[in-house]
Amino acid sequence: MSIEGAAIHPLDTPINLDRKVPPRGGFNGELLLIELRRVLRNRRTMIFTVALPVIFFVAFGLPQKGNLTGSINARAYEMISFAIYGAFAASTAIGASVSVERAQGWSRQLRLTPLSGAAYIAVKVIAAMAGAALPVIIVFAIGMGSGAKLGTGALIASLLLTWICGSVLASLGLFVGYVVPSENAMQILGPALSILAFGGGIFYPLAVMSHTMQQVASFTPLWGLSQIARYPLLGGSFDVMWMVSGVAWVAAFTLGAIWRFRSDTKRV
Question: Is residue 7 part of a domain?
Fold first, then answer.
């Protein structure tokens, strides 16, 4: 069969090899559901992040009786402190699990998809928020059941603020998980979080610190977030610097995690 004389027509539409970015950068409910299942099935992480703050509260919070100053109940103060520490520990641990994914090559597989860095970080943060809710609920339940005195409105506000302020620090775990190797992520993050908790006034009340230590504490990542969580209990005037500090640190860690995610996936 002869094809001589056949007209050869160029393609009407040129081939575009660029991948189309899906809506919301690839963020979707199915991906979020998969991530939530992975988090809740990680018994080792969940037991550790739930059991530790509960043990701390039982050992150091329950013996507290009476009031700290004025009408501020000491047991309620400790309840919020150890609950937010549990939320910090859970959210950062879940965020840092990305280091294991990197070692397994999962982050490189994600580069083959149109998933954006911001969407991936959002999925991780939401999953961390779900995990962080467990220690908060359990510690609050033990505290209120053992005599912590907190009004209904203050209780609900403290519960929500403790959960939100504690879980947003998943960005710190993500950043560390992308910076250090998988075998070192939790070894670095665990002690670092304890030091930050002491320095930020979670394990040690700011009111009894020296003026110098209070100034140092105000520059730590946990300072503003923990103060916001305690505000319904402590009352008084709301310091806008608490919000500025919390937003600044969370934004810095989030941008760092997105930057490392993009750098990591470029190696595919």
Answer: no
DSSP one-letter code for 26? G
Split at pLDDT 50, 70, 90, the class of 22 is low
Q: Is 166 contained in some domain?
A: yes
CA atoms within 13 A on the CB side of 162: 32
Does a structural domain hold residue 182? yes
Burial 112-149 (b: 16+ CB within 10 A, else e): eeebbbbbbbbbbbbbbbbbbbbbbbbbbebbbeeebb
Residue 26 region by backbone torsions, left for phi larger than 0, else alpha for psi between -120 and 50, else beta: left
Work out how many domains the chain is built from and give that number: 1
Domain that holds residue 109: 27-191+254-265
Radius of gyration of the chain (CA): 23
Output the CA–CA distances (angstroms, integers) from residue 232 to 41, 133, 161, 259, in the order listed: 34, 18, 9, 36
Q: What is the pLDDT confidence band of residue 23, given thresholds at 50, 70 and 90?
A: low
Both tokens assigned to 264: 């990591």
User: What values do phi and psi take at 67, rounded to 5?
Assistant: -115, 150
The DSSP secondary-structure symbol of 67 reads B
Give the CA dihedral 133, 134, 139, 141, nearest 10 degrees: 90
Rounded distance between C-alpha atoms, residue 185 and residue 173, angstroms: 8
**pTM exceeds 0.85 for this model:** no
